[in-house]
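Lab notebook: predicted structure, single chain.

Context: the supervisor wants predicted structures on file for every construct in the current expression panel, including those that have not yet been purified. This is the next one on the list. No modifications to the sequence; it matches the entry in the shared construct table.
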Amino acid sequence: FDVPDGFDAPGGMGSVGDVRQTMASPKTIALDAMGGDHGPEVVIPGAALSLERHPALSFIFFGDEARINAGLDRYGTLKAKSRVVHTSNVVAMHDKPSHALRRGKGSSMWLALEAVKSGEAHAAVSAGNTGALMAMAKLILRPIAGIERPALAALWPTVRSECIVLDVGANVGATARKLSELALMGAAMARAIFHIEKPTVGLLNVGVEDVKGVEEVREAHAWLKGSADLPFDYKGFVEGDQIGHGAADVIVVEGFAGNIALKTAEGTARQIGVYLKGAMASSLLTKIGALLARGGFRVLKAKMDPRRLNGGTFLGLKGIAVKSHGGTDAFGFASAVDLAYEMADSGLISRLTDDLGAFHHKIEQAAGKPEATSAERAS
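Prediction complete. Output recorded below exactly as produced.
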């Protein structure tokens, strides 16, 4: 007898993979079919699975036409709702962002993002090189007015359900203003995918006391705590061990610490899985106990399955770009497509643009600067 498998699945947290209530709003998703470790062999069945959940979806596949069409031949319904754009140019997983920008024009990743910019697609999904995707997304989709660099947001499992953590690696270091912007971005995403009108937001820190933490974190805390008309409920400082308890719907952290927290959580989950699997197979008695508890193990396996939360999104851009884990399977890639659909269907970009515009207006007023014109805000 073997303890139910799945505890040693590859890591990666990100998008919602649960089957949610299907909405009727038609949306087109641009897919980088060549991204990730497996390319079309995972992207196509992942898109087919997401289409089952959201029949209003349609797709544009960018990449090797012969490989894509061969895969689509196995999924008649998906093929009928898909268009293929051929390119032989592919961004490699090991390419540096600067190299990808110089030589990536016309690649499957580039074309998927351009489809969002042109309005052909409502969102783009890629399992390719993270640094290259961020650099290209910033160049092609452009940041919302007042945002210098997008933030990478990930979904995090908690004992309550899920929360959003950002930034988890797009930027190293953050000013008080940037942390406040992250709070607004995360809250907008929470409204989009959790359907909570006023989500709760916490600021990750080394303690919950007001005097703890670096200056930038304390400054952001003071501003958020003192603002009465925020589009979210600010809960104050949150410590690392409180994330998994569901202390808030959104956890804000600068990218260096956020990425360490994410990787540590992934590694700890795998470590616990190895310990549990070893313990349940250590003797005949524990094997019998594991057999009797197999129903509970199935529930635990589902909750710990990283594919269910695969995919992160770059927030702060004028379009939606979702990054899937490069080594995921079809189930995991479908989760990333589901997230892209839900974000596009919610009108996330419009709401986020309004929230950030109001925030930057407050900053300008506090600094005694003239308010930006509507044309400047739209640029």
